[in-house]
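This section describes the prediction task in plain terms. A model, or a person checking by hand, is given the sequence of a single protein chain and must write out its three-dimensional structure as a string of tokens. No templates, partner chains or ligands are provided. The sample shown here is typical of the held-out split.
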Amino acid sequence: MIRGAVFDLDGTVLNTVPALKKSMDLALREFGLGEVTEDEVKVFVGNGSLNYVKRAFGKFGIHDPETVAKAAETYRKHFAVNCMYGVQPYEGVPEALAFLKKQGLKLAVLSNKPQQQTEDNIFPVYGRELFDLVTGERPDVPLKPDPRGLRMTLDTLGLRAEECLYFGDTRMDMETGVKGGCVTVGVLWGFRGPAELAEQHPYAIISTPFEIQDVYRLASAEQ
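The expected answer:
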């Protein structure tokens, strides 16, 4: 029986590209560099803010660890201010979440962005009652694709992995969900394409949030 669902944040429950781009562009500008495109943002993000900075600054040939560390501090400063810039829920996601909640599922967010900005993104859009647990980057939570963060989420919610759907939009998310033993679902409205998601052999790959209900019903019927 499906009793819970865990969601990635960026590219899954919220379109955060404008905020990620603006914050990085401001950081790059402080170092006299150019900008990143929205398409580059979608490729560069996913493994925590430091890796996002490494990829964005690497585009301009900046690889020196000391400079990258300073750049990461600069980016985090700008992101703390601009993390809600242009952020919007994807069409159909709020309705899909409301449906799952109505079925009695426990809902959670598991993100690699800092805990404070994860909360700053989720709560203004979805409120504080929809999700039972909202987890971002913290010293005690290993970054995805390490499945320990997902297992910690399941333990906190009192769920077994096989009872839980996991939704995400990147290879990293698919690896996290599969290694964590969840019913893993790739979503195509986010940052990456179907070929990347299919590499980890998820339970399903869906094109629109309206298919979340179908996946829930199918997975429930199979258990």
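For orientation: The chain has two domains: 4-15+87-221, 17-82.
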